[in-house]
Amino acid sequence: MRNEAAAPGLRERKKQATRAALSEAAVRLAAEHGAEHVTVEAISEAAGVSPRTFFNYFDSHDDAFVMIDREIGERVRRAVRDAPAAVPPLDAVREALATELADVEERQEIWSLRATVLRRSPHLLVRGLGVHLAEELELAEAIEHRLGPGRAGGSAGAAPGLYPRLLAAIAGTAVRVSVEHWCAQAPAVAFPEVFRRVFTHLAEGLPEPAESSEAESPRAPADG
Known about the structure:
mainly alpha, Arc Repressor Mutant, subunit A, Tetracycline Repressor, domain 2, 2 domains, 0% strand, globular
């Protein structure tokens, strides 16, 4: 599902790896001890970096637990804006998100642990929701930019129009539902299959599914 032409360079991959290591360390420590008992120093030590490096990637202690990554949102928005003009907005958003979710199967354990941490710490859920809503608005702005004047339903200098806001909100919900549904079915079902079916439902306008259409497609067995 990854767009190879948009693959990041070595420096970017190193930054992504460091951020992922910090988030993973934070979530693992929080799952064991509770987020309120985990310090920046402990997270940094577990990830093999300094506390100063931690704040190069996260604005606050809490951001590491909710796995906030502003750079992902920026890449998604850029991909939406730069997709070929002939690509429908829903497809452009789907492909931009698919690129960022290409490694989700490798991180199933950490996604599951993160869900546990958030359930135990409601204030982290609130923090994550606030960031999610801000990201959603910025994605709507990128969609509106893609549509151009007169097609998005907004007005110059105002908030994005109805269609961009709706598509951005639906896309965020689609990712959450895809991940949650896949986590509940894995390893029998591959994430790309769940993600594809979610966006197929959206593209079709969410008609009532046939009885057999929701049957899970099992993951193909590995060779050997």
